[in-house]
Amino acid sequence: MIKKPFKDIELSMLGLGNMRFHTSDPKGESIIDKDAFEVIDYAYKNGINYFDTAHVYNNGDSERCVGECMSKYDRNTFYVATKFNINACKDYKKMFDDQLSRLKTDHIDFYLVHCILDGNIDEYLSSGLVDFLEEKRTEGKIRYLGFSSHASTATLERFADSHQFDFAQIQLNYYDWVYGNSKSEYEALRKRNIPIMVMEPVRGGRLSSLTPDSEAILKKAHPEWSISSWALRFVKSLPGVQVVLSGMNNLEQIKDNIETFSTDDVLSKEDEATLMQALELFKKQLTIPCTGCRYCTKTCPVQINIPEYLTVLNDVKANGNFNLWKADKVESEGKPADCIGCRSCTAQCPQSLNIPFYMEELANKMKK
Fold it and tell me: Of 101, 193, 226, 265, which residue is the least packed, with the fewest Cβ within 10 Å?
């Protein structure tokens, strides 16, 4: 396992994210299944020493699970990261004590102000939370203080400059490097010499399975590499990255990822070019090339706002089903499920898109 120096300690470059474990739900409670303990134990025994959780994961059961599983090991041999999310709780003082109890520890190694957004930064900065956490850092209850951001780059920079932070966590992967804000966020943190913890390196699993054609490009270059490992190798190659978090919930995933981080090799220039070629094809095949001309809406007998629904479907395809809520916000008399397949829209479409097929696809996703 690759380890990189961080201040006065060493951290495994692969960290275990504890948000995606399988759960059961007895009596309305989210209880992490026992197979999570097998994954955590395997991670620890194979060199991973950074374990990330939060009080909002599984209603606190993630912290309990990590605390219970890790309590049998020497506390000086691993590092725990957890977070406070002001949108989920306002009483940060009580929450901090509760977290120490759930994690069965007298200190937290890496503590994060959780999920900075454009809409909550002012509340975070005025709440007194960061001052409180800095006091806990001085007392030794927190070893290193950081934050995680899902905000714009400007908001990230504003928060980073507001206090003295030891590290920061951002969503970073090759898709968002090209089509999102990952690169500008990375560069902002590098400019400030703030070490980077990476979340979503495979974009919630979306970069573990590409289109067949784009996967073929990667497999031709390195048949022995898994598709997921290309994403991990991309972030692993960036010099500002300290820890790459992966939400591994079974042994197959963790074994593959540990193998990827068993050597300090990085992507070659040829590998980077191959990955970008596959990404370009993936993006092209993933999304629907609607130009928003609205010719299709003029002849739709059930008056579906087709371009807006295609925008939602593209968002879902690229970013996951949790974006389906946006379909309910579309102003439209007809809904995707109302499509009768008359194909009058397709006849009017300059791109010759199979619109009835896409309406059926979105309607089926909305049912689930």
Answer: 193
> How do residues 51-71 score in pLDDT, each as one tens digit?
999 998 877 788 988 998 999
Cβ contacts of residue 193 below 8 Å, gap of 6+?
A: none
Cα distances from 329 to residues 53, 117, 291, 292, 354, in angstroms, run 32, 21, 20, 18, 23
Residue type for 311, please?
Answer: T
> Is the pTM value of this prediction over 0.70?
yes
**Cα of 26 vs its chain's centroid, Å:** 27
pLDDT in tens, 247-304: 887 888 889 999 999 998 889 999 999 999 999 999 888 888 888 889 899 899 999 9
For residue 52, the enclosing domain spans 3-279
Q: Give the whole-angstrom CA distance, residue 267 versus residue 280.
A: 18
- Residues 231 and 354 placed together within one structural domain of the fold: no
Residue 201 is part of a domain; what is its CATH number?
A: 3.20.20.100
